[in-house]
Structures are given as structure tokens and as C-alpha cells.
Amino acid sequence: MKYAMAVSGLIMVGYLVVHMYGNLKAFVSPDAFNEYAHHLRTIGEPMLPHEGLLWVVRVVLLASVLVHAYCAITLWRRNKKAAGYSGGKRYHSKQNRTGIQRSYASFTMRWGGVTIALFIVFHILNLTTNDIHPGGASDEPFTKLHNSFQYFWVLLAYTVAMIAVGFHLWHGFWSALTTLGQNRSSTRIASRATPVSIGLAAIITLGFLAPPFSIYFFGLGG
Ligand code: HEM
Predict the structure, then answer these.
(1) 3 state SS of 116
(2) Tens digits of residue pLDDT in 131-154
(3) How confident is the model over 21-58, as pLDDT tens digits?
(4) What span, in angstroms and rounded, lies between the C-alpha atoms of 55 and 39?
(5) What is the whole-number distance in angstroms between the Cα of residue 191 and the centre of ligand 1?
(6) How many A from CA of 174 to the centre of ligand 1?
(7) How many CA atoms lie within 13 A of 14 on its CB side?
(8) Cβ-based neighbour number of residue 88 at 10 Å
(9) Which domains does the chain have, with CATH numbers?
(10) Which residues line ligand 1 (CB under 6 A)?
């Protein structure tokens, strides 16, 4: 189950890196952003039907989310049972100074995961289907983005969600590396996986937040 969590998590990290990079096209121009979104739908044609590869990606992502959540809940229940329902003794805390590792990120995993799941539903209704369309509905990807980020509450909702994503990745990437045998240190602080995970989490969080903040504060895209 830990392997399944690590592999499904890494698939989603791969998606996030590509998605974040794609969003940065907003800095090139609104047309570049729209063209990129259009390209996502035509890539693979004529061998694949219109939106063919996009649907493959959607199915893989959905499967990854389901596997990830199912394993998380099952492992959490098993851990609770194994620890006699007394809480996480395995982790380093004030009460348990010999625990192997603990960070703010590591004990926000469950609620962070729930926050991200709720965000994804809101996000798809907002920017893919455009059912939630503050500032006006549109068929153009950049216009949807631009209209939404005229509103402070939208900016705030995305900021909270991206911070949750950052924390989740910080511990989640570390945990995946450990599960897959790439962490040879017994403590979190000494582990080389720690700066790698924090770096990745910071790049993804800041990369995602750059276009919305630039639209709201500096009028990116007009
Ligand atoms: C500030 C952060 C983000 C912005 C501005 C953003 C922007 C967008 C936009 C504009 C679309 C629509 C693309 C299109 O229809 O052409 C989209 C789709 C999507 N985004 Fe994001 N995104 C952000 C963060 C995230 C995060 C963190 C996740 C995952 C945890 C995510 C998952 C998705 C998914 C699953 C879709 C739907 C893809 C599809 O099936 O068409 N996004 N995003």
C-alpha cells in the first residue's frame, strides 16, 4: 500500500509539474496560454481522436487519486489499530523525543489531503467547466483565468489550496522517496530527501501562485 501511495503520488507530482509549467505561459501572452490549452486537446491527432490523450491523462489521474485516497485511509486505520489507538508515537514530538521524524507538513497530511480534494472539485467547476464563473463565463481559457482572479476571495481560496499542496508535497515527496528506498538517513533533519522535497514543494507552490498574483496585483493580461 505504501508503494501504491508513492507511485500514485509521483504520477500526480508529474502532472503538477507539467500543469504548473503550462500555466506559466500566461506570462508569455494570453494567446500563448490559449494556444497551449488548445494544444492539450489536439495532441496525438490524427492517431488519437480529438481530446484523446487528454482523456487518457484524466483517467490515469482519477485512478491515481482514488488509489492514493484508498491507501491513505486504509493505512491510517491500520496504524491506529497497531498503535493501540493512542496516537502517533512513531513521530518525534515533545512527548516523544525519540520518534524518528516530524515536521509541520507531516502532521497536516490528512486534512491537507481533504483540502486538496475539495479544491480539485471547486477548481474543475471554476476553470474547466466554468460553472463557477466570478467575473463572467467564457470559452477562452485565459479569459476564464483572468476573470476569476479579479476577485480577492478567489485569489485567497487558490492561495490556501496551493499552500496545502505545498505542505502535502513537502512531506509526501519525502515519504515517497523513503518508501522507494531513496532515503538512507534515519532522521528527517539529516536526510538529503528533506531539502529536495522542500525545494520541489516551494517551486510548485510559487510557480502556481505566480500567474494569479500577477493578474490580481499587476493586471497581467490586461
Ligand atoms: C493557481 C493554481 C492553478 C491554476 C491557475 C490552474 C489553472 C487551470 C486551468 C486554467 C485549467 C483549465 C485548462 C483548460 O480547460 O484548458 C485547469 C485545469 C485543471 N487543473 Fe488546474 N490550476 C491550478 C492548480 C491546480 C492544482 C494544484 C491541481 C491539482 C491538485 C490542478 C488540477 C487541475 C485539473 C485536474 C484540471 C482539469 C484538467 C482537465 O481534465 O481538463 N490545478 N487548471
Answers:
(1) helix
(2) 999 999 999 999 999 999 999 999
(3) 999 999 999 999 999 999 999 999 999 999 999 999 99
(4) 14
(5) 32
(6) 24
(7) 10
(8) 16
(9) 2-218 (1.20.1300)
(10) 19, 23, 37, 58, 116, 120, 123-124, 127-128, 141, 145, 158, 162, 165, 208-209, 211-212
